[in-house]
Fold:
Amino acid sequence: MRTAVGFVLVALYLLPVGVMVAYPTPEDWSSRILGDPQVFRYVLNSFVVASGTCVLTLVLAVPAAYALARLPLRGKPVLMLLMLSSLMFPAIMLATPLFVVFSRLGLTDTYLGLILADTTLALPYAIVLLRPAFAAVPREFGEAAVIDGCSAFGVFWRVVLPLVLPGVATVAVLAFLWGWGDLVFALTLATDDEMRPVTTGLWGFFGATTSDWGGAMAFATVAMMPPLVVFLISQRLVGPVLAR
Structure:
């Protein structure tokens, strides 16, 4: 019974994806996707922004979560309260202030500006998710490593971090997807068509009087592939770790 229910739920979930993939005609692919180099520019922009958001989020979130979970810091409850409070602010509230600041710094229509904007929202989630993973590692492991002559950084890098690799991989995928699917900052910080990601590039298939559904479905299929590949790669990397 559970298997049948699970099969039905998966089928319902994948039905829109199947329609999206099957809807475009060969002409849609040749004229609107393969014949338009701007489509691949959109994909490249999204990939750069999403990858940058993923890397920057991990660089900042991993040591921050480790410090909050295992180091004797003052004001931990206040820091965690600030992290949790920041999760309540939607992206639309930050879009205008960030546009004013980034425009003065010359960061509009740049990869760096989009990466920094997406990281401001992905970072609190990453820290909140990673902190319990670091806290779950027994402290005896670190103490034993110190007795064997391991430094404080060595305990973090060689002992604790490998044990929380599944959590780090999960946060990496979420940060990548966050940067890939962002629309608010893409609209406000990327006014040049050469810097637009796939989320705003999809609008080019619709106008006031026309709607190119075939081209839009083909474009959405192309935009779906990089996140899918990233997810499959993360599964292959983390799977052996979880199987130990």
The mean pLDDT is 86.
